[in-house]
Amino acid sequence: MPTRPTTLRALTGAALLPLALVTPAWGSPAAAPAPKAEDPATLCAVAGTLRGDHGQHALVSLCAGSGTPQFAVSAPASCGRAGTRVRYSCRTNGTWSAKRSGKTLAGGPLPGSADYPGPGTYDITATVRVRSAPAGVDLTGQVRATLTLTAPKAPPTHAITVDRTTLRRNSTTTLVYTVRRDSAEGDGSARFGLIGESASGVRIATSDARCVNPLVGKYPARTRLPYSLDCALTELQPGHPEQVKVRVTVGATCSTVVSKLGYWMPNGQALYTGGMLEGPELTCS
Q: The whole model's pTM is what?
């Protein structure tokens, strides 16, 4: 029988095995692959049943999205009425709040979204109104669910800082905002906005040619909002932040001033690939 080739293959394998187990002195272990980002998903749990005096009922779930920068919360429901075979469509709205380890991290109108706080177990409470089409069910009540989300919080791609955060009555304050892009993803374009409280009389101005007070009203109106500023930034690069110097004039009535940044994260020809970042809030005393 032709045993030699078999023996040779066996010896060759035996000789290679020790070599495979020894790391060469001039080499280094291969780096562990980066963990794969979790695919976007929606997690739902039954949150409660609302009941009416005449056989109306609504089974409400609470859902939260993970795997994206947004923490989207909704409350789908199935509803009906005892003694009828009508197939109802159910509409829900209301308010929600989410706690993790006893601390409230997000909330707002329902359905709605906030920045994703990261993985963990969330207690979500909602006050929900359920109405049916056709009419027949109209119920309001509070429901609650616990959801455990595992998607990691995405590292921030942009940042906004300002050199001071306090304004004073009857004075003008000069501030310098710095806008950064820290990620290689995206491009150098972003829209930076500031807005004060409209009824306070606050005025926001700048000599920066990239910024304007927004134009409002129907053409040919030339009315601009003195309490708001809109800046088009086009050269944001990692290691090359943009700065915007503004003057905020506050009268006898105090006003806060908030800031935000809308940025573009290209993904082929996909439509919804942008992001919105909240900047520091200026307080007034």
A: 0.73
Give the tens place of pLDDT for each residue, 218-275: 999 999 999 999 999 999 999 999 999 999 999 999 999 999 999 988 888 888 888 8
Residue ranges with strand state E in the chain: 41-51, 56-66, 70-74, 77-81, 89-100, 103-110, 112-115, 120-133, 138-149, 158-162, 166-167, 171-181, 190-196, 203-205, 211-212, 228-233, 242-250, 257-264, 274-278, 283-284
pLDDT at 199 over 50: yes
Q: Residue 149 corresponds to which tokens in the numbers above?
A: 């989300």
CB 115 within 8 A of CB 106: yes
Provide the pairing of β-strand 274-278 with 257-264.
antiparallel
Structure tokens at 173: 């304050």
Residue type, 102: G
The 3-class SS string of 29-96 reads CCCCCCCCCCCCEEEEEEEEEEECCCCEEEEEEEEEEECCCEEEEECCEEEEECCCCCCCEEEEEEEE
Tokens of 147: 């959801």
Rounded Cα distance, 23 and 15, in Å: 15
CB-based contact 99:122 (threshold 8 Å)? yes
State which H helix or E strand residue 13 sits in. helix 4-21
